[in-house]
Amino acid sequence: KINPDLAPSLGTPGAPVVIVLFSDFQCGYCREEAKMIRENLLQAFPTQVRVYFKDYPLAAIHDWAKPAAIAGRCVFQQQPLKFWDYHDWVFEEQPKLNAAEFGGKFAAWAKDKGLDADQLTACQSSKATEALLDRTLAEGKELGVNSTPTMFINGRRINFSIKWPNLKQVVEF
């Protein structure tokens, strides 16, 4: 039921372990899990794992999560590999970001990374990627995602934040 098409991904295509992560850029638990995954997963399992990132902003409680998800999709469309720089930046800056200043900080980040900041700002403000986000949200709802982070490892759902030793154990299994 999970469709990884058009989702940012890391790791080896065709890897025996596939992780699909539904995440919210404004969620503190997602921030910690993202950091754990980026610091450990591919170093420990360089060819055995493929990770797909699915935006799942909880807009009812996070006021800038949806604009951040839309912006991330814009980055992914412009330069797919730069998505992970964006991902890391948003989670790193999460405590300093807010709805009122997100657009300006996003534009400054894009310019700093050598991306077409004007195009990305236009994409983000026009919500050009919102339809893709809506499909991901519908997919998550169909899969029973009701909180973030929620991870599927080879189809098995883990709907809570997981620590590295436990994730490592699951991947090894």
Write the layout of secondary structure elements.
Blueprint: E1 9-11, E2 17-23, H1 28-44, E3 49-55, H2 65-78, H3 83-93, H4 102-112, H5 117-126, H6 130-142, E4 150-153, E5 156-158, H7 164-172
Question: Which terms would index this structure?
Answer:
alpha+beta; five-stranded mixed β-sheet; 173 residues; single chain
Describe the 3D structure:
Helix 2 runs parallel beside helix 4 (about 100-110). With about 170 residues, the chain is an alpha+beta fold. The longest helix is centred in the first third of the chain and has 17 residues, at about 30-45. The protein has a 5-stranded mixed β-sheet with strand order 1-3-2-4-5, with helices on both faces. Helix 1 links the parallel strand 2 (about 15-25) and strand 3. The two termini are about 20 Å apart. It has helices at about 30-45, 65-80, 85-95, 100-110, 115-125, 130-140, 165-170, and strands at about 10, 15-25, 50-55, 150-155, 155-160. It has 7 helices and 5 strands. About 50% of the residues lie in helices and about 15% in strands. The chain is globular.
Biggest beta sheet summary: 5 strands, mixed
Please state the structural category: alpha+beta
Which stretches of 5+ consecutive residues score pLDDT under 50?
none
> What is the general shape?
globular
- The strand order across the widest sheet is 1-3-2-4-5
Strand percent estimate: 5-15%
Quaternary state, please?
single chain
Radius of gyration: 15 Å
- Which percent range fits the helix content? 40-55%
Q: What is the count of helical runs?
A: 7
Report the count of strand segments.
Answer: 5
- Secondary-structure element order, as H and E? EEHEHHHHHEEH
| Average pLDDT figure | 93
Distance between the termini: 22 Å
